[in-house]
Amino acid sequence: MAGESWPSKKVERMAQEMSWKDFSAMEDREKVPFLNNPNGNPFHVLFAQQFNRENLDLLCQVAEKARLINKDRKKGREFLKSLLFGTYALNFFAQPSTRTFLSFQTAQEVLGMGIRDIRDPSTSSEAKGETLEDSIRTFSSYVDLVVMRHPHEGSAELGAWVLNKSDRRIPIINGGSGKDQHPTQALLDIYTLYKSFDGQIDGRTIVMVGDLARGRTVRSLSYLMKNYQGVELFFVSPPHLRMRDDIKDFLDRHDIFCQEEDDLEEVIPLADAIYMTRVQDEWDEKHIKGKGVPVRLKFRQPIGPKYRFKKEYLEWMKKDAVLMHPLPKRDEIEEEVGYSSDSRVVFWRQERNGMWIRVALIAVIFGKEKEILDYQMSSP
Ligand code: CP
Q: Can you tell me the distance from the alpha carbon of 39 to that of 33, in angstroms, rounded to the nearest whole number?
């Protein structure tokens, strides 16, 4: 049902014969033929590096058009619902989520899909010892698309590997995996930048602030920057939460300017976009003395005053700059800022954009982009 299937018979044969050890050991760019359709658009969505400028622009255009079509409450909405009517999606979320879960669910409904979900793995047969691989193979017996959030890095990739070997090869979308990546969040961030700057992301200065070591959203967004010319990145974080070297090496290899900064106040006036993130302390672990059992810390780490966005900073921002946040937020943005009517505070719009870019992504995975782009709006 989805997309155009394999790029070639050779890739199909290789995927079916390849062990998990060999697949997981490949470089990300080597995996792309096993993830994308022959036209370069995604089939499985695992990481940001599989997107290019062409399909990023396409996704933004499809999201814009789907949004417009949806304004026509009768004919437009019926058209969108007809696109994937009779197909089913499973949202398998083994980690907490509000936005990603709800926006995928709503996007699927916009496109007419039937929706299933598993939010608590203790209610699935994983609790009886079924492997994740077998669970995912089982999902494909009932649905046409799996969206998955999981605490373990590489779990969506494992799913793609299993499904590539299956005679019911359905797409899998990574809705956040471990501390590694959150590719669809990066797509909605790109769409937000696209909308904020009339499609002109090239040459922009983006300041990323907060827990850059474990924030999977900033990692995925940094990877996408290779698709834009002349972008400059500033990373502002406490020393123990600095952006990891793999991202800095990637940016270096792609000639993307990036600089670590300790002083948020200094870079605010330079920024076209300020991207705040919270401390990801759900990843903190300590060991109970004597037992060696890892438990989650119960307390919440504050980010510290140097890395908080204060209301007065709105005065320091450029007139056309935007303040973004993947949400949920905590103390890293003063509460008043969230209720401000300043149009440069875009994070509530950003989460709404997430639903539309996910509509576009699912439509593109299923090869429905042309139908959306060619749809003739009826005259008012
Ligand atoms: N931004 C984001 O992933 O939010 P949720 O954790 O609520 O899905």
A: 10
Q: Whose CA is nearest to atom 6 of ligand 1?
A: 97
Nearest alpha carbon to residue 312 among 273, 286, 289, 342: 342
What is the rounded CA–CA span in Å between residue 70 and residue 64?
10
Q: Which H/E stretch holds residue 24?
A: helix 20-25
pLDDT in tens, 140-199: 999 999 999 998 889 999 999 999 999 999 999 999 987 789 999 999 999 999 999 999
Q: Which residue's CA is the closest to the ligand 1 atom numbered 1?
A: 326
Q: pLDDT, tens digit, for every residue of 5-49?
A: 788 899 999 999 999 999 999 999 999 999 999 999 999 999 999
* Rounded Cα gap, residues 349 and 347, in angstroms: 5
Q: Is 119 exposed, middle or buried (0-12, 13-18, 19+ CB in 10 A)?
A: middle
Q: What is the Cα–Cα distance from 88 to 197, expressed in whole angstroms? A: 35
How many of the other CB atoms lie within 10 Å of CB of 46?
24
Q: Which of 92, 93, 95, 100 to mutate to test the pocket of ligand 1 (most atoms within 8 A of CB)?
A: 100
For ligand 1, pick from 91, 92, 93, 97 the residue to mutate: most ligand atoms within 8 Å of CB. 97
Nearest of 110, 37, 31 to residue 367 by alpha carbon: 37
The rounded Å distance from CA 338 to ligand 1 centre is: 17
Number of helices (H), then strands (E), belonging to the chain: the values are: 16, 11
Residue bearing the CA closest to ligand 1, atom 3: 100
Distance CA 146, CA 318 (A): 41
CA distance 194 to 224: 13
